[in-house]
Amino acid sequence: EAGVVQSPRYKIIEKKQPVAFWCNPISGHNTLYWYLQNLGQGPELLIRYENEEAVDDSQLPKDRFSAERLKGVDSTLKIQPAELGDSAVYLCASSLGGVGFGTGELFFGEGSRLTVL
Amino acid sequence: GDSVTQMEGPVTLSEEAFLTINCTYTATGYPSLFWYVQYPGEGLQLLLKATKADDKGSNKGFEATYRKETTSFHLEKGSVQVSDSAVYFCALSEYGNKLVFGAGTILRVKS
After folding, report:
1. Which of B21, B37, B97, B100 has the most A C-beta neighbours within 10 Å, making it the best mutation to test the interface with A?
2. What is the CB neighbour count within 10 angstroms for residue A50?
3. Which of A55, A108, B48, B89 is in Cβ range 3.0-4.6 Å of B57 for a Cys bridge?
4. How many CB pairs (< 8 A) connect A and B?
């Protein structure tokens, strides 16, 4: 079974440029998460989807960040314009239902590392 | 709000040494507790979990016991191997909707 797939793995851009990250969750997983991981810190939730609906986007900086999950499968996270402080790893995860459902296990992709110059 | 505090790393041990990584949490209710591990070049993966007080989670020789009285979930292993070198994250989920992670602890095991 294929795991969570993210692309690109690495991205280097100049500040004020746009960037987009793509995530393909495990087949059948209706819950999808985007997490932000700064260097030396734990992941922090940006947005959670239940199917195509964003049910928790309270930590998403909506002035420059946007996300979508068309048809409840793949998801894209966009930053426009990027700032120096956005340099981090962006993690995508999926699960069968929320954390409290079933095993409570989230399956993570390898992440997309962004460097803003 | 909910939070998780882990001991700072890196933790450097010789092979076959005993491992403890401390984790304490703050939550308003009774959360589920998790340890996730991130091996070099890989995504985070669930190592073990406990859903109520006094539960013990275990996997791959690692153990952690949910201690409500001390709000702790310390990770232990009796004999570490070089292959255990990774970053370990303690996490909680209080309402079943998201994971709140600690900062992570780097473990380095030398042969």
Report:
1. B97
2. 16
3. B48
4. 68
A110/B43 touch (CB, cutoff 8 Å), yes or no: yes
**Nearest Cα to Cα of residue B88 among B101, B72, B76, B104:** B104
User: Quick one: closest CA in B to A101, which residue?
Assistant: B96
- For residues A49 and A98, give the distance between their C-alpha atoms in angstroms, rounded to a whole number: 10
Per residue in A53-83, pLDDT (tens digit) is 998 898 999 999 999 998 889 999 999 999 9
Secondary structure (H, E, C), chain B: CCEEEECCCCEEEECCCCEEECEEEECCCCCEEEEEEECCCCCCEEEEEECCCCCEEEECCEEEECECCCCECCEEECCCCHHHCEEEEEEEECCCCCCEECCCEEEEEEC
Pairing of strands A112-116, A10-13: parallel
- Which tens digits make up the pLDDT trace of B59-68? 999 999 999 9
CA distance A44 to chain B (A): 7
Given this model, what pLDDT does residue A62 score?
A: 92
Considering chain B, what percentage of its residues have pLDDT values greater than 90?
A: 79
Q: How confident is the model at residue A98 (pLDDT cuts 50, 70, 90)?
A: low
Structure tokens at A65: 């960040």
Say which of B43, B44, B93 has its CB closest to residue A99.
B93
Interface test with B, best of A99, A107, A110 (most B CBs within 10 A): A99
